Structures are given as structure tokens and as C-alpha cells.
């Protein structure tokens, strides 16, 4: 058993994914997963995990204990239970149905003593890497300025993108190429990291990556000319309407009805597509997705995954039963059937588990963990898969793009990115 645990930890240190034996739960280190996609640069753990300033000196002792609610929280929840409306009662029932599954996954995580001891190391960065910048550019504001069409990003193009003599790294920049940054597809067709400069900030695009920074009105520009060039993995993280986000002015939100106009069917691959949708625990959104959004997109065979958030000491970031601040988020997965395929050639989706728990230490602003490598076995159609990510997140200087995994951009509506993922 010790040898198996050791082997799994060694595999985790290489891949960034730790699989728990006999459980539908996995632990992900996003920094390791992302760094596997770079050839020359690295994501700094200090930047990604910036919300955890201090690394704890002690870790959990391995006992499978789920934090229980405090007396104060219990009293608050008891008072609130008498005035819950119908949607809140439905949301609470969903939580109760998922609770045993989440507890089981958390217990599997707590039994992995070698992983728990290793967790604090995830936050230790390379001293040679630059520290977190004091302030990042606000692309929401930039995209709304009248000068937005005039903004350009300078790409540092190496000579024929060939490795330097006697080494594995690309040669130094041969020329600078300026391209519009908004409403323009920016690509790195080489197999090496590409440096880009914009307003005194440097951004990194790993090999075989491209992005399209725009709002929802330009999403149709990404529809492929031919269905065989469609995407067989579509990951969507909408800027859902959220009171907390609105109060903190983190980013502008999007009314639900606008999502109905996303051309998901036109973006889908002719041999089938796996659609992944991040969703909050708000019951109104769940009803909207199940009754309107997924039917409009043609998504069927729905499964639900959970992202369970933990601290570097192995404890949950919050109490499991706290009504308004659950320590987990949900994502719904489903398939769009292939076009022009008879029943004998329709892809089968039995391999997609009905429930799975993804455990990780959240980054700044609860940045979603990269899922491409984890989901590649469930993607229908040809491999390597063609992936498109629709996100409402920020462009982060120093480690912007990560090729085959979800890329986060931000705008008043949407930023979009596409790429590839392989087995």
C-alpha cells in the first residue's frame, strides 16, 4: 500500500492530478497542470495561490473529519430554515443529496496522508520567478474605451520558431509583430512559448494556443466554416448574475437570457461534443439551465461534477453546511450528438460518470482549475480534441495563456479562447 501511495504521489508531482483509489474524486494542482504546457516559462505558485499568503506549518493528521458548523452558524441556519422560500428549499435539498457524496470524497482525500503532507509544498515558488504584480490591467475598462480598436499587442516572434542551437528552448526574438488585441484572433502556431507585450506588461502564450478577446456580440466569428472543424470540447464559465459579484464590482455580470444566443450547436463538432458549464449554487440558475439553456443548446445526458475547495492544511475553506457560502461549486456536463450520423455510428457516453468531485486549493478570485486533461477520456470525436473555452475572467501578466487548458479573459460580456487538448 505504501508503495502504491508513493507511486501515486510521484505521478501527481509529474502530472498535477492525484487519483484516489476506489473513489470518484481527484485532487488537482492547477499550477503543475499549467506548467506542463510551457516549454520555457512557469506559472509562479505565489501568484496563483496569492490568497494564501502564509504556508501553514502543520497539516491535518489524516483523520477523515469534515468540519462541522459552529454553534453560531447552526443557530443562524435554524432561524433561516423557517423562512426559506421554495427555491431555497429546493437548493437545500440538492445540497443534502450531494452531502454524503462530498463527505465521502473529502474522506478519501484525508486518507491520502502522503498528499496531505505534500500540500504546503504546492505554495512554495521559485525565488527566481517574479513576484505578484501590484496591479493588473483592467481589460473591462480598456475594452470599453473608444481607443479599444487602436490597442495593439506586440508579439515577440523567434526566428522560424526553431530551438536554439544545442538546446531545447526557442531562439531569442527575431522580430516584433504588432496585432490588434481586441476583436482579433491572436495565435501562437509554434510549439514554443511566445512572449507578448501590452502596455508595459508581458504575457506568455504557450505553443499551439490562440485566443480571441471580445464580447458576446462577436462570438459568431468563431463558428468554423466547416462542421468537421467544430469543437468537441466546449467549456463555459459565464459571468452569472450574482449579488456578491455586483457589490464587489469584480466584473460585470450577464443576464441569463443572453446565454440562449450562444451558438453552441454551430460550434459543436460533427462527431459530437462534450459541453462543460460552470454554475453557481443558486437554484434559479439551475432551473434555467435544465429547463431552457441546455434544451436550446441541444445538450443531453447530463452529469454533475463538484469542485471542492480546500486550504493548504487540508481543511475545507468553509463549513460544508453554511447555506450562502458553500465550500464547493458545481459544473454540469452533457453531450451534443454528432451531426449526420446514423444510430449505428452515434457515440456512446456511458463512460462519463454521473458524479465526480474535483478537489483543489483555489487560486485568486476562486479561479477555476484547468479541466482539459481530466476530461479528455470523455470527449467524443477525433483526438487530439479541438477545445474552445468561453470565460469571463482576467488577463494575468506573466502567465496568461496555457495552451490546451482553460484560458481566462475578461470583458463586459465575454472573452473567448480556443485551443487543443490531447490524450
TrEMBL record:
Pfam families: MT-A70. GO terms for molecular function: methyltransferase activity; nucleic acid binding. Residues 61-91 are annotated as: Disordered. GO terms for biological process: methylation. Residues 72-81 have a biased composition (Basic residues). GO terms for cellular component: nucleus. InterPro entries: DNA_methylase_N6_adenine_CS, MT-A70-like. PANTHER family: N(6)-ADENINE-SPECIFIC METHYLTRANSFERASE METTL4, N6-ADENOSINE-METHYLTRANSFERASE. Belongs to the MT-A70-like family. This is Methyltransferase-like protein 2. It comes from Dioscorea zingiberensis. The lineage of its organism: Eukaryota, Viridiplantae, Streptophyta, Embryophyta, Tracheophyta.
